[in-house]
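seq:
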Amino acid sequence: MLSRIVTIIVLVPLAVIIIALAVANRALVPFTLDPFNPGNPALTTQMPLFVFLFAALALGMIIGSVATWFRQGRYRRIARQRSHEVDRLRKAENANEPRSTAGTALTRHSG
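struct:
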């Protein structure tokens, strides 16, 4: 319940800001990929400014996520190795345990 309230407190103002940004920046602006001939119609497109702003924001989030994922690869590898080691040790422990009956199982865990 608390997480739902916090989500509402964060997402509602964020949505209002995003909608206000989109409404305030709806004028068409040119975006060109040719720095030497900006008037080249083949490499120029016109869209509302908020489209470019949101695209830049999304691209930044994706690049940041990928960079974080690569930087944390070392820790994921260590966790995977340790998980395999724990599984191996559990299997070795289970293989070394003698087959016990119900009466010996109670005495084994009491000490």
